[in-house]
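ok trying this again, last paste got cut off
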Amino acid sequence: MSSKVTCYIIILVALSGFISGGCEKRNSGIETPVEKIPLFAINNFYMFHMQQTQVGCSAYITSNGVYEVLEKGMCWSKFIRPTVFNNKTIDGSGVGSFKTLITGLSANSTYYARPYAISNRDTIYGEEKSFTTLIEEDMNGVFTDSRDSNEYRWVRIGTQIWMAENLAYLPSVSPPNEGSVSSPFYYVYNYYGTDVFAAKDTYYYALYGTYYNWEAALQGEPGSGKDPSGTRGVCPTGWHLPSNAEWEKLNDYVKNDGYLGQVGLVLKSKSGWFIDSGNGTDEYGFSALPNGGRADEMGGKFGSGGLNSHWWSCTDDATPNGWMWDITHDDLWSMSFIHYDESDKSFAFGVRCVGDKTAN
């Protein structure tokens, strides 16, 4: 065999080895490409707490262990397939879950977003989602109660319109040692007289509003478990007492809006609780303050101010009990949740009214 032929054979063998290096031979004899192991995987991309100019996002990143995640976050644009060269958040490094907030958006506008992860080799993107921000006039405002000219802030949470402070309507006032299951009674925290004007001039009236026993809250109307309740009670025209179903709707919306296990925390006011560790983040402007309540025990007394928020539901349990909802301070479990429980109808709590009209 000539040297030229030998050279050709060597070249063919080398080429054959080179070509087969990227393939795997199956038992059938068919050669298929070997799959390339991905650098990272980005899963569980969620969007929550949509507002006019911002939206929350979260995602979870895993790695094949070969390369490190040097940077991660969200990128977004008004056009499809956003990249890190458009707009982005930077939310640290490494694998695992992360949560971030996209800000600086325009109201009533459509955007596209996706999570990303950068290594020293490549940039990987996760699932893309589109979203539309809310229109400006839907989120909050102020209204006046024509009965006494008190002004109240309101806030939209999901499809509900909630008062952002406790009702303060006070047609009469009683000391805490007086009470009833069957007649309406009104109280002001730590006020022990009967003068309405003097009661309205106190610090706690301005802070916590009025406390109502069951009959004062419902004004003789029947209780309701419906959504909407249809029970106006002591609320102003255009508003009504929330039922258990409406409190549950609030709880479910906030929980599913990215705050599972933190509903109480994000509904609390940022200040006013007994110690700073009891304060909340007030993500929705609900501004729950620790108004406490009036109990019929020990001859009637006020209690839990600074520690607990208490509001009536208009859902009847059974005489002498009705349902109430609260947020408490004293342990980590209750600090993060909003609860409901039955209470004697002679007790007095705050009232948060819900708008008769729902948001779109």
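PB: full thing came through this time. The first strand starts at residue 23 and ends at 25.
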